[in-house]
Amino acid sequence: MPVYTYRGVNRAGATVVGERSATNKTEAATMLKREQINVSKLSEKGKEFNIPTFGTGVDSKELAIFTRQFSVMIDAGLPLVQCLEILAGQQENKIFQKILNGVRASIEGGATLSASMKQYEKVFDALYYNMVEAGETGGILDTILQRLSSYIEKNVKLKRAVKSAMIYPTAVIGIAVMVITLLLWKVVPIFTTLFNGLGVDLPLPTRIVIGMSKFVGSIYGFFILVFVVGVAVALKLWYGTPQGRYALDHVLLRLPMVGILLRKIAVARFTRTLGTLISSGVPILEGLDITARTSGNAVIERAITQTRKAVEAGRSLVDPLKETDVFPGMVTQMIGVGEQTGAMDAMLQKIADFYEDEVDAAVKDLLTALEPMMILFLGIVVGGIVVSMYLPLFSLIGKLAGK
Fold this sequence. Notes:
The chain contains 16 helices and three strands. Strands 2-1-3 form a three-stranded antiparallel β-sheet, with helices on one face. By secondary structure, the chain is mainly alpha-helical. The protein has three domains: 3-44; 60-153, Receptor-associated Protein (Up-down Bundle), CATH 1.20.81.30; 166-403, Receptor-associated Protein (Up-down Bundle), CATH 1.20.81.30. It has helices at residues 25-34, 60-75, 80-90, 94-108, 113-118, 126-138, 141-198, 204-217, 219-239, 242-254, 258-279, 284-293, 298-312, 318-324, 329-341, 344-402, and strands spanning 3-9, 15-21, 38-44.
């Protein structure tokens, strides 16, 4: 029987490591879940070092379409295996097709749908297979799949809003860097040669630009480029650690304009995820655990984890959320109303709808504010370089005209 090594956090919040014997990875994960160990790493002993894979090969849009089609087929009364066979046959994404065939084969072997999907956690995350498990247990799999598809579609919309906010400034800054580098590297040296031949006195702005040009064209410019790339790689590696991720996420949430947008995105994701889980019959503690792991922000994740511990100790949900000082007052007040009225899931969905609209508005405001700032930046930097190169020519023309 294979032996699996694991690393995770136990009920008390302490990090634990160890080994478990199981027939497969799913069984090992189930055993640890029963022991209330939140697993962060699980691999077969002797096969811990696998070739890394980048991405899942299945995007959220494909998953949403699959889930919607799957729910319609289940609602029509088709057997699980037949549904998966049809959907796999229609799937253009070969990676997703292989995964669906693997899920179908696992079900034919006697496993449940949720357990079969859990084997492919990079595609069907904790939220997905836990909701499927709740649907299987309650006999409402078609309804759960409909809720899942709606959730994924809204999540795709949210990601699209974030990308649209990032594309414009990233493109402008990238183009600006390329234009400035090209001017300093290729154009300015031509003017420098011209000025040396004419023997004119150079004003201070021109001398500064020529100095920058020499620096960019020298070996030091290459070292600076290597240094910048090295810093970027180091930050990425640091972000991969718990301490680095928390520190950088904390800084991002404190940034003007961008921090407000990220906080609204985090609130929308938290309320949408938790509301979907609760309405699907997932217990509140498990729902908070899943929501924390899928929050996408280390600060929000820690706040939700602290809230979960408080709820597990017998407290209500709203007071620990207030104490974290992460969620806006309106959110905690509405959650408190939801707790008192017994309509927590509906209230969370309303908050999510509100904050998703807020995200759309915040993205538009951010783009509106960034556009003139970017134009001003380009005008000052690029225009400053061009004008500084023409200043000696204006001086020379003035001297010639005076003769």
